[in-house]
Amino acid sequence: MRQLVRRAASVVVGTAVLAGVSGCAGSSGAVAGVSVTEDGRPLGVLMVCGQRIDGASLYTSEGSHTETVGEWTARSALGPGLSTWALDAPAEGWETARSAAPLDAGTTYHLRGWTKDDSRSSTAVDFTPEDLEQLAPGHVRYYGPTSTLTVPVAEFEATACKKH
Fold first, then answer.
1. DSSP 72-131
2. Integer distance in angstroms from the first to the last C-alpha of the chain?
3. What is the pLDDT of residues 113-139, one digit of tens each?
4. Which residues contact 37 (CB under 8 A, 6 or more apart)?
5. Is 59 helix (H, G, I), strand (E, B) or coil?
6. Three-class SS state of 141
7. In terms of C-beta distances under 8 Å and separation of at least 24 residues, what long-range contacts does 7-15 make, across chains too?
8. 115, 103, 135, 152: which is closest to 37 by C-alpha?
9. How confident is the model at residue 27 (pLDDT cuts 50, 70, 90)?
10. Rounded to two decimals, what is the model's pTM?
């Protein structure tokens, strides 16, 4: 029994070490979040952390099926700093393959940023339309170091990159 526990522990430690040195660790070039306008329309939010991000995708995922429901490409690559855009309409500075249609109640959506060459991406944020109803304008929902956080935009801009 001890030998089985030791083997299991070594597999877990080995996997953690491998993940720490693989290309997956640290590939986050930005932090994705969502916010709302004064009239409750959804906004995408990206805090780019020292690298470029070229676009963002909004998608749903159920089991092995993923469906893209919105996709935006920045006209110029996004450099370090904060970027926001409307998820439900064309946005200045963005080319839109498709804006998100009205979001379906009870559906979980995922928003993440990406580069055209897949060299890095943002963290993803998960949300439902009901989560957006709870958001106050000027606040951002995003996935922090260990959990989903909701903070004022200024705090998100000041701390999001430091936490990832």
1. EEEEEEE-SEEEEEESSS--TTEEEEE---SPPTT--EEEEEE-TTSS-EEEPEEE-HHH
2. 39
3. 999 999 989 999 999 999 999 999 999
4. 43, 86, 137
5. strand
6. strand
7. none
8. 135
9. low
10. 0.80
